[in-house]
Design goal:
Length: 166
């Protein structure tokens, strides 16, 4: 049975690493649901976060293949309950809708979002939270005529204190 996994790949920041890692997934016909990459607390180490859905025996093999890459320091697959996940979304809405109804303002408060730009013809609302919250707010804003919408890739951090690099 397929489950959702988050891969955390720690590696030296070298050209082509992301391509090699995603090729390992593509070869096994694993679709990438989310991909983000960033520098870590160690400036020489880069972290790729990749969300996928696959079977346990496949993910174990994928981790072994990723760790064989020269620049990779460590690769780990996590289950959903082992991580804190967040993403950020921005929503552009017509100012006219915001001004004529208190519903948008109530949704902003309810979802702990904030207005970051308030222009004469539009407002931009920012929301940071889990995927479900970001999607729920998007669904609720649709009735007000969303002008534009963008969301970041998910970022994650482990619940426990233990470090990945040892």
């Amino acid at each position: 049975m397929e489950k959702e996994y988050t891969l955390s790949v720690l590696a030296e920041n070298q050209v082509g690493l992301t391509n090699r890692v995603t090729a390992i997934l593509a070869k096994r016909k694993i679709n990438i649901e989310n991909l983000s990459g960033t520098e870590t607390e160690n400036k020489n180490v880069y972290r790729l976060i990749i969300d996928v859905k696959t079977r346990e025996e496949i993910i174990e093999n994928v981790i072994l293949q990723i760790e064989k890459q020269i620049d990779v320091v460590k690769a780990v697959a996590y289950n959903e309950n082992e991580l804190i996940r967040r993403e950020t979304a921005i929503y552009k809405l017509p100012s006219a809708e915001y001004e004529k109804s208190k519903d948008i303002e109530q949704l902003i408060k309810q979802y702990d979002a904030k207005i970051i730009i308030n222009e004469s013809d539009y407002i931009i609302v920012e929301k940071t939270g889990d995927k479900k919250e970001v999607q729920e707010l998007l669904d609720k804003f649709k009735s007000f005529g969303i002008l534009d919408f963008a969301r970041s890739g998910r970022i994650t951090i482990k619940h426990t204190k233990t470090e990945e690099l040892k």
